[in-house]
Amino acid sequence: MTKFDRGNSKASKLTNEQVWEIKERYMKGGCTQASLCREYGVAKETIGRIIRGETRQGVPDPKREPTPEELNAQAAAFYAQLNKQAASLPVAAERKADRMLDQLSDRARAYGVKEDSE
């Protein structure tokens, strides 16, 4: 796996928000690929690939609210990670993790997300 494989955001110069800014600004008009590449400090080819959807196609729209299914998937992944970490923690840290899990559960319920039962 190279540092430029799909999903490797650490190799990127641009944040997800910047990718969406580039797409939106170019689609509205008034700027060129060359002006965008100078502004963001990347190659013109990079801007072109972003605009054509050849790269960074999995970047979520930061303005879009997540669907209930996406929230459920995020919560399930977080619960799994937290439970895995809590299993190896001392008792005091485990209590803190339990409090954090309770807070997350409360927040998830406020969004209408159902907790998976194990």
List strands and helices in order, with pairings.
Elements: H1 16-28, H2 33-40, H3 44-52, H4 68-87, H5 91-110
Helix pairs in contact: 2-3, 4-5
Tell me what the structure shows:
This protein is mainly alpha-helical. It folds into 2 domains: 1-64; 68-110. The chain has helices at residues 16-28, 33-40, 44-52, 68-87, 91-110. Helix 4 runs antiparallel to helix 5 (91-110). The longest helix has 20 residues, at 68-87. The radius of gyration is 20 Å and the shape is elongated. The model has no long low-confidence stretch (mean pLDDT 78).
Silhouette: elongated
Helix count equals 5
- The fraction of residues assigned to DSSP E strands is under 5%
- Low-pLDDT stretches are none
Average pLDDT metric: 78
Give a count of the beta strands, DSSP E runs of length 2 or more: 0
What's the alpha carbon Rg, rounded to whole Å? Answer: 20 Å
Helix content: 55-70%
> What is the element string, with H for helices and E for strands?
HHHHH
Give the termini distance in whole angstroms. Answer: 34 Å
Q: What is the domain tally?
A: 2
Largest β-sheet summary: none
Structural class label = mainly alpha
